[in-house]
Amino acid sequence: MSTGGAEMMLYKLLAHGVPSVDQANVVSLTDVGTVGERIRELGVSVTALGMRRGRPDPRALWRLAALLRRVRPDLVQTWMYHADLVGGVAAKLAGRLPVAWGIRQSNLHPAHSERTTIWTARACALLSRWVPDRIVSCSTAARTIHEALGYDRNKIEVIPNGFDTEVFRPSTEARGRVRAELKIAEGTPVVGIVARFDPQKDHRTFIRAAGRLRRRLGRVDFILCGGGVDESNATLRDWMDQEAIGDCCHVLGERADVPQLLAAMDVAVLCSAYGEGFPNAVGEAMACGVPCVCTDVGDAAAIVGDTGAIVSPGDADALADAVRRLLAESGEARTARSAGARGRIIDGYCIEDIVAQYRNFYE
After folding, report:
1. Exposure pattern of 81-119 as b/e (b: 16+ CB <10 Å)?
2. What pLDDT score was predicted for residue 57?
């Protein structure tokens, strides 16, 4: 269970007692991973079935069915396509246990999404009338796309991701500390992206836009963090060299202090090309009072509203122009935009409200 949006939403629900730790059992199809260890620290049982990614293993299905027969849960909640299929079938084999599926992304890309993932999503569409009792989608866009794919529209309910606005919040102290750590001069604009290195996240477009901003503005720094986004990434380094921005890019890898890194930014970017349902990175940045420039994927436009900007996927020129416009605003306008971004998360996506929606969904 690596650090991802679905895994972190599961962690947040369990941390807020939905379900209570003494009633929950978490099963990973693959390994325990970073998030699984954090869930264990909450006191929740975590079991790993050891499946290899992209390789179906019927033995895991039977092991899961046997575990479910032994535990006899009141509900089996699955997250994402492979878990929906394997967990849903195992629950039926274990005695027709109630099942709730989880949809965590919007569209699949025929060139970049794994074939097994595409096949699994199509299989789930066919089985959605019989296997799950209910389906929870993290975004309206994901619901619309999956209904068109053939999912049973009568079973789908939208519950967005939620954010702890006490953890993700503006912080002058964190802003100063991070900028001092990275040796960013006071007054230098900082633009950031928090995303793993993956074709879906489209770091290539971010780097192209960063090059345009550097040539247009002169001094501007860029913070990049996430799995695979580190100095050993030769592809990323080559892209930065092509744009001649290596000296102003801070490539940090996976970090545990994301709220502090966000607080140090002036603008946060989501430039995903496809697949996003409800991007956590956007909600976290906005909770920190950082305006966002996002590509029009998933529910990004609905989350951002009028507090940031939306551009078409893959358009580096539009992305750079939108970031430049936000950076050029007056101090008063920036302060108002920052407050509006944070207020939008507090009013619509605070974790307490989302936990209550999940509690009602389960009951």
Report:
1. bbbbbbbbbbbbbbeebebbbbbbbbbbeeeebeeebee
2. 76
Over the stretch 260-317, which tens digit does the pLDDT of each residue have?
Answer: 999 999 999 999 999 999 999 999 999 999 999 999 999 999 999 999 999 999 999 9
Q: Are residues 80 and 33 in the same domain?
A: yes
**Maximum CA pair distance of the chain?**
65
Q: Is the pLDDT of residue 239 over 80?
A: yes
Q: What is the torsional sign of CA 15, 18, 23, 25?
A: negative
Distance between CA 363 and CA 358 in Å, rounded?
Answer: 9
- Count of C-beta atoms within a 10 Å radius of residue 217: 16
Residue 303 identity (one-letter amino acid): I
CA nearest 130: which of 99, 90, 108, 176? 99
**What dihedral do alpha carbons 356, 357, 359, 360 form, nearest 10°?**
120
Where helices occur in 16-131 by DSSP H, the ranges are: 33-41, 58-71, 81-93, 115-127
Residue 321 near residue 215, CB atoms below 8 Å: no
Range of the domain at 63: 5-163+351-362
Q: Strands 25-28 and 45-48: what pairing?
A: parallel
The CATH number of residue 82's host domain is 3.40.50.2000
Q: How far apart are CA 208 and CA 203, in angstroms?
A: 9
3-state secondary structure of 190: strand
Q: Give residue 54's pLDDT.
A: 64
Residues 12/351, Cβ–Cβ less than 8 Å: yes
